[in-house]
Amino acid sequence: MAAQMGIAQIIQADLAKIGIRAKIIDLEPTVYVSRIYKGDFLLTVQNYGRINRDPGTMLGGAVVWYPKGPTGFESAEFTKWRDEAATSLDREKRRSLYRNIQELALEECFNNPIAPQQQFCVYRDYVKGLWFNREGVPYVGDLWLDK
After folding, report:
1. Same domain, 43 and 62
2. Counts of helices then strands in the chain (DSSP H, E)
3. Looking at the whole model, is its pTM more than 0.85?
4. Are residues 20 and 68 in the same domain?
């Protein structure tokens, strides 16, 4: 997984600056997933997408944010705030709850998002009708070639 390897190398270099020697272990996806669910790691790099629509998508969908998940992090406040935010339609209340979650995550450092997952699509100028939904997924239902 090239994206994770690049991030892992950056983290490894940053850790070396403070005297921590980290060894990167590149695992097959099935082994990686198995170890993630067991919590069998000291530090891991993981990418997850589909989080750009709503913070609740990330907090409810990415395994590293699960209470009692692979990070071992538990917090009744986190779970309460996450569940309240996911079920509230009040925008200001949600903003406040997500701010609480953000501050807790920064304080506890059980998970540190670094950057959004990038997706790229290359196509020729004669490709028409291609568009992307709010998750960045290409929609090809209206695709046609002008040639």
Report:
1. no
2. 5, 4
3. no
4. no
- Residue 112 CA to residue 117 CA, distance in Å, equals 14
Q: Which residues of 20-44 are buried (b: 16+ CB within 10 A; e: fewer)?
A: eeeeeeeeeeeebeeebeeeeeeeb
Task: Check whether residue 57 and residue 112 sit in a common domain.
Answer: yes
Between CA 47 and CA 66 the distance in angstroms is 15
**How many domains are there within the chain?**
3
Per residue of the chain (147 residues), what is the pLDDT tens digit?
567 888 899 999 999 999 999 999 998 888 988 888 888 888 888 776 666 677 888 888 777 787 777 888 888 999 999 999 999 999 999 999 999 999 998 898 888 777 766 667 778 999 999 988 776 778 888 999 999
